[in-house]
Structure formats: C-alpha cells, structure tokens
Amino acid sequence: MSMKTIVHLPSDSIEEVIKNLFTKLHTMKPSIFNENAQPSDFVLKVRGFNEFIIPYKRDGSKYCLSDFDYIRKCIHLKLPIDVVLFNRENMHHNLWNENTIKMMKYFDQFVGNNNWNLIQDETRCLSQRECQTPVCIQIISAERIKHYKITKLKDDSEIVNLEEDLKIYITGSLHYGTRLLVRQEFTPVYQIKEGKLHLDSPIMMTFNILISTLPKETRLTLSIYMTDSPINLQVLEINKKDICLATINCKLVDYNGYFMKGLFNVGMWERTEPNPIMMCCENTSSNTCKLHYRMIEFNKPVKMNTFIANEQELNTNITGSVKIDSEHTLRFKYAVEADPLTVLSQEDCRLLWTYRSLVMKTKPRSIARLVSA
Q1: Digit-coded pLDDT (tens) for 179-233
Q2: What is the pTM assigned to this prediction?
Q3: 8 neighbors 20 (Cβ within 8 angstroms)
Q4: Residue 101 contacts by C-beta under 8 Å, 6 or more apart in sequence?
C-alpha cells in the first residue's frame, strides 16, 4: 500500500483513524482494495512487527491511540508513527504458523475436558508433597492472661484473688487423634505484666515434622502455663507444679483442604488441661485469654492432598467390639453420665475416647458428652 500521512490526536479513537486512512487510500488508489471492502475489515499493524492496533475492546467500547504502548513510545521519543492498514482476516497468519494453529485446535479440545481442572489446580496451588518445610508458627502476643488464686477459709468459704503479674511459658504440640506426632515444643519463661505478654520479636516455634508428611486431620494444641521457674529459662518439659492457665486446639487445614496461613487471634479455654481430642473451636467470651500467632506462609496455597485419613483409620475401634476393663467401669460410667457442661479431667476424656464405640452402642444419648469432651 502507498504511504500517506494523516494527523490525529492521541485521544482519537482507533476506529476514527482507520476510517480516515481507509477513505484517503481508497479515494486515491481504489485498486488496492477488494470491491466490497469496508473500514471495519481492517486493523492497524505496526510496520515491520507482529503488533496490531485494534479498534474495539471485548466489551464493545473503543480504544484510543494513547491506549497502545507503541503509540506512547513514539510520542515520548518524538518518532513518526508508522502503521499500515491490515486485513483482520489475515491476522492469525502473522501470529501463529500452520503447526501452531493445529496445536491450538487440540489444545481447545483439551481445555474442554475434565483434565483441565487438574492443570489449573497445579498452577494455582502447591501440592503438599512439594512442601519440604517443617511446620512452624510465630507467637506474636497474648493478653488477658490471668490466674484465679483460691484461698479456703476455716468456715469452708473461699476467697478468689485474680493474679495478672505472672511468669508463664507457652507449649505447642501436634496431635493426630490422641497420638502425639512429634516432641512437644516450649518457649522460654516470660514475665507477664497486667495480663499481657509483650515481645520485642515473635517467638518461632518449629516442630520436627515436614508439612509434606503431615496428616490432614492434625491438630495444633497451644497452651499457656504458669510457672515459678526463672525468667528466660528455656523450658524442656512441664513441671508437675506448673498450672495450665489456658489452652486451645487449632486446625491446620481449612474446609477447602488448604493449609491454614496468615494471622490468628484466638480465644483460649481457661482453667482446663490440654485435650487433643477436644473440638477445634475458640472461646468467644470477651474476657477470655487471647493468643495472637502466625502460621507459616507460601507464595501459593498448599493443597493438603497427600496424607488423608482413610475410612479404616477413621473407624478404628469404632466398628469393632471393645471390652471395658473392670478398673475403668465406674469411672467410665461417671464420665458418660456427667452433664455435658461438666469439665472432665484429661484422664476421663482419654477414657471416653478409648471406649467411644461403647458410647455409641450402649449410650447413644450421651454422644453430646463425648463430643464436648
């Protein structure tokens, strides 16, 4: 085609430029066009490059000259804008060769089948097997930590004193059912003032287990203990004299099957011992102890699709017959028949879990007691 010069503003639409250029060329040299050619049959092509300037967006609105990077560069560098009219039907020949077009047909068929969802999942998230990283959390802060000191008088009355200046440490453990997966982790001893734990930097708590080998149903149990040990002492085990002030069970996998990530501020259950089979729900009371922690994060969501408990694992000791030991009979009866709001000891909870099949078979009305335990 002949080279012609036309003048337009950057704000002019591409449609207007194409019409102007088409009219000028068609008037001066109509032989270069087909008999029924219209401006809508053409787009603008940057001379010497497979770069096209089209008039309309997908929603039908119009592009203007300044929308295109080539135009803006030419204006910035004060270079002439060199474009040609190009038949839109021939665009694909410049973008793809014949083999590529054939491949695109097969690709379109592939996109239409169910396998495409698998490819999308792989690009959108990480597989659990790829996460060769230990499970770790950061303890950021805690507040409303308190201890109720009960003093009994001679007349059997009680005086309850609230203590908020304490020495505490935090424990973390990973449980699969009642099974402790790895060694329990401990923080150093910290001084609490007015019930608040202020840290200069977050406490890193790393567990000796990789995310790639973590069962999907694993629970994270976090507990706060009061102690008489010196401040900054690294705790290695729980002393019998230490008192559990608050505890909570946390899920590691969300309802979509992804590894939990981000910040969490959870309300803990006070004046109760840690119980790995207790439900994963937080205490919503406004006055309860609050723990602020962060889960490890990755650049993509982690799909926990490797280690999922099968039906046999989930039904272990439930469908089979379990005989209760004679020494546990009275204690089991007390635990099963207790009011659902009664706080059971850790041993009672473990007893209920061990003989849970008997609860379902012989005391089905006491399932609420089992769930609350």
Answers
A1: 888 999 999 999 998 889 988 889 999 998 888 888 888 999 999 999 999 999 9
A2: 0.52
A3: yes
A4: 92
Q: What is the pLDDT of residues 29-39, one digit of tens each?
A: 888 888 888 88
Question: Does residue 244 sit in the same domain as residue 181?
Answer: yes
Residue tagged 């040299």 (tokens): 29
Phi, psi of 195 (to 5 degrees): 80, 10
> Average per-residue pLDDT in the chain?
79
pLDDT in tens, 224-249: 999 999 999 999 999 989 999 999 99
Closest CA to 271 of 154, 163, 158, 165: 163
Residues 178 and 244 in one domain: yes
CATH code, 61: 3.10.20.90
* Sign of the four-CA dihedral 343, 349, 355, 361: positive
Sign of CA dihedral 85, 91, 93, 95: positive
pLDDT at 311 > cutoff 80: no
Is there a domain that residue 2 lies in? no
Question: For residue 345, what are the domain limits?
Answer: 317-372
Residue 169 C-beta-side C-alpha neighbours within 13 Å: 23
Q: How far apart are CA 215 and CA 222, in angstroms?
A: 18
4 assigned to some structural domain: no
User: Do 189 and 211 meet the contact criterion of CB atoms below 8 Å apart?
Assistant: no
Pairing of the two strands 302-303 and 126-127: parallel
Number of domains observed in the structure of the chain: 3
299 lies in the same domain as 321: no
Q: What is the pLDDT of residue 116?
A: 46
Distance between alpha carbon 130 and the CA centroid of its chain, in Å? Answer: 16
Whether residues 229 and 178 fall in one domain: yes
